[in-house]
Amino acid sequence: MAESPYKSLNVFLIKIFLLYFIWLVSDGFLVHEVSWFAKFWAYFYHLFLQIILTGSKWGLSLLGYDYVSGYNSLAIIGSYGVIIGNQCVGFGLSYGFASLIGAYPGPLQKKIWFIPLGIIFIGLINVARVLALTTSVYKSGGFVQMEEHDLFNNIIYIFIFLLWLAWVKLLNKKQL
Q: Domain containing 82: what range?
């Protein structure tokens, strides 16, 4: 009996849905019900936040701005600044990217370097996003318009799609 041409696609989709389910259970249930897991999970949000804040502060210094920052906030002196929420640190995006690459067929040796490299690029884009939003708030003298925030989010989504496309087309010769 011939193998279905959709078998690889079905396996990929099952893996993606399972990884998404793991995310939902982890981020939506376990963090509220299991204290040790909540601490573990919060550590990753904290780590991503600190990387973005440190990179953004470094970038503002490089651009010649004086700034103040709190645990999850950053402002150029004389402006309102931005607050970086958990949904903005890129942890979920990085997990989603890693899931896409991990679930797609391909050699593990390539995945081991491509996933961290992609997460680093996502982090760099996120730092650029925070820098752009922070300077935009400063230059406008008020708050960031929602369109600007959404524009930067869409740029990150497009970038993740392009990374996945690079994985599918260039680095991974095995197709679905």
A: 7-171
